Give the backbone structure.
Amino acid sequence: MAITIKSDREIELMRESCKILAKVHDQLGESIEPGMSTLDIDRLGEKLIRSYGCVPNFLDYNGYPASICVSVNEEVVHGIPSKHRIIHEGDIVSLDAGLIYKGYHSDAARTYAVGKVSEDVQKLMDVTKQAFFEGVKMAKAGNHLFDISNAIDEYVSGFGYGIVRELVGHGIGTHLHEDPQIPNFRQNRRGPKLQPGMTLAIEPMINMGRADVEWLDDDWTVVAQDGLPSAHYENTVLITDGEPEILTLL
């Protein structure tokens, strides 16, 4: 699949899809509290998505059995919601969510604190979020794709955290995952030149300890191998003639 350049009409549909997802994330973030199960979060997320007349794009994607990926503490991404997994004060919960509006996908992730978390965990969350913004500074027409990757790596590496290498960002549009792949770690190549009309899901996944990850027996949940916390922050971004437009922020 080649990198797609969206038309003005497609960009408007992407904007609306992403705006709705941003509202869903805000509502989910406000709802998280100790004692909830991860299945409670998933059910609320699906209800919110459908209330806007949209469809959750993760549900049944390659067999994934839920609408919201709910990953707790050392889980990096793709955690499967369960009524048996209860979140507690001091946990962190990463929610990766997306939806389809009139055929166009949006994708965004946030890591939320459950109540009060330790200073070192809060720092991990803050650095992961800022890593996205460091990367997006380079998401300008005329730059190259891996300028984004290198900026993320340069920022995160200064903190001694592990940057997950097995999972990367991606293009997005009429498909959830389109070309190009967007690593969060340094590349020796430059990658394709960025052009107005590209829509990219940029998503640093950062481990407090080592970068190594493994998949659990459910074949979906990715965890930090050393058991230390992991954080995830993602937005869908439009390349323009000027500054990049972050579509999944209100």
Observations:
- The mean pLDDT is 98.
- The chain has four helices and 15 strands.
- Helices lie at 8-31, 38-51, 119-136, 145-157.
- The first helix runs from residue 8 to 31.
